[in-house]
UniProtKB/TrEMBL annotation:
Protein name according to UniProt: Uncharacterized protein (DUF1330 family)
Domain DUF1330 stretches: 2-95
First and last residue of the signal peptide: none
Gene3D superfamilies: 3.30.70.100
Length: 113
């Protein structure tokens, strides 16, 4: 099942460390089958507030996403970003192609008083 890394990053001023981070990032993804799905492209907020940028990476599975995050190659460059950009980053497992929310709906209805 695919997995994703989703980052909601707050706006940051340009910095040489950020340029280096972005230059080096693709090489850290390759060994784990990771790829960019969204990379700071414009977004449209429909509800709530979402200042900053969105980055979304795709991986073959959650194990690969975790292995990438924990890898020495990524951990070496992560401070280049984290020193200059605040944000939230999550790893999340996707759903299979034939996913249906029926089971969740049943669980919600069962939990109703």
């Amino acid at each position: 099942m695919p997995a994703y890394v989703i980052a909601h990053l707050q706006d940051a001023a340009p910095h040489p460390d950020i340029a280096e981070y972005v230059e080096r990032l693709p090489a850290t993804l390759a060994p784990y089958g990771g790829r960019f799905l969204v990379h700071a492209t414009p977004h449209e907020v429909k509800e709530g507030a979402w200042p900053g940028a969105v980055v979304m990476l795709g991986f073959p599975g959650i194990a690969e996403a975790r292995a990438w995050w924990d890898s020495p190659a990524y951990q070496e460059i992560a401070p280049l970003r984290s020193r200059h950009i605040e944000g939230d980053i999550i790893l999340v497992e996707g759903v299979p192609d034939d996913y249906s929310p029926t089971g969740l709906v049943q669980a919600i209805r069962t939990a109703l008083p």
